[in-house]
Write a structure and sequence with these properties.
Layout lengths: L9 H13 L11 H5 L7 H10 L1 E3 L1 H13 L2 H5 L5 H14 L1 E4 L10 H12 L10 H10 L5 E8 L3 H8 L2 E3 L4 E3 L1 H7 L5 E9 H10 L4 E2 L3 E3 L21 H11 L22 E3 L25
Parallel strand pairs: 1-9, 2-3, 3-6, 6-7, 6-8
Antiparallel strand pairs: 4-5
Length: 308
């Protein structure tokens, strides 16, 4: 939760943080500790830290799970398009849900800890998808190669750069039906009857553009879109009051390097976050690598705002 662009008033910001903890929007103070985090900064830096803290967005698991369902339900719009009656739209949507496969998005190097696996499991509970239709990419490929009418819905919590989905969509998986490796992308090119959907909870505009460019034909249905206003380095950022905008870049660079992130290559050690997206966002289980590292770093004795 956040108040974008709130005035820099320490008592007000900390009071808001305590309220979020009291009403359990944030977890206990030992997990998200604003006062501990503020001790990292000098007196001159504190106004910037307070502005960033006021704009910081933290989402507990229960809320993210509910938002995943919302993104999924938004697909009912394109699915029912063309139906002449409300009943026809409902039938089309029910048929879609009854056939759809839920598939997790995996990282550039697939791993069982990838967040997509977690959200595929959540789909069973929140979306009432039977376990047998929650499949790995390899198993889903086998089915859609044999029947191109089966829709595939990819799920995850967050899209920053879009890299993970692009890799998942273009990666080759062995298909016994064809006797060779095939990707979801190549299936879409071979037959336009294939239908692929992606339902992340959060998606940056930057990541969304990259997915649309590299994965044509995929229907992207995020619950929330993070535009440039959510970036601490954007000219249109809503994080900083006008009086602080000119010094924000220097603040983030100097403190990011003190926190152990020195690179400017848009990689994992970039003080601006992955792909320089400079977000102020975290979840209960992890902070996206697109978040500015001063939020979560524990390097060089840095005290994190969110502890994992």
């Amino acid at each position: 939760m956040s108040i974008l662009g709130a005035a820099v008033n320490k008592d007000l910001v900390l009071s808001k943080c305590r309220y979020f903890t009291d009403v359990q929007v944030w977890p206990r103070a030992s997990r998200v500790d604003p006062e501990r985090w503020l001790s990292n900064f000098s007196v001159e830096e504190e106004p910037y830290a307070l502005a960033l803290l006021s704009s910081f967005m933290f989402y507990r698991n229960e809320l993210v799970e509910d938002m995943l369902r919302s993104g999924f339900m938004r697909l009912s719009g394109p699915i029912a398009t063309g139906e002449r009656s409300l009943m026809g739209g409902r039938v089309a949507w029910r048929r879609f849900v009854d056939q759809a496969l839920i598939v997790p998005v995996t990282g550039e190097i697939p791993n069982v800890t990838d967040s997509g696996h977690k959200y595929a499991r959540i789909a069973r509970i929140k979306l009432h998808i039977p376990q047998e239709r929650i499949l790995s990419c390899e198993k889903a490929i086998e089915l859609v190669c044999e029947d191109n009418s089966i829709p595939v819905i990819f799920v995850d919590d967050f899209v920053g750069s879009g890299n993970q989905f692009i890799e998942t969509y273009h990666r080759g998986y062995f298909c016994s039906h064809l006797g060779r490796k095939v990707s979801f992308h190549s299936l879409a090119l071979m037959n336009t009857a294939h239908s692929f959907y992606y339902c992340p909870v959060f998606c940056t505009e930057y990541g969304g553009r990259r997915i649309k460019r590299n994965c044509p034909g995929v229907v992207l249905s995020p619950t929330h879109i993070l535009d440039d206003r959510h970036s601490a380095l954007s000219l249109s950022s809503a994080i900083w009051p006008d009086a602080l905008k000119s010094g924000a870049y220097r603040f983030l660079k100097e403190t990011g390097r003190r926190a152990g992130f020195y690179a400017e290559d848009e990689g994992e050690d970039d003080w601006r976050g992955f792909h320089a997206l400079a977000l102020a966002l975290a979840f209960e289980d992890s902070a996206p690598d697109a978040t500015v590292p001063i939020i979560y770093s524990t390097r060089n004795g840095w005290l994190p705002l969110v502890e994992y």
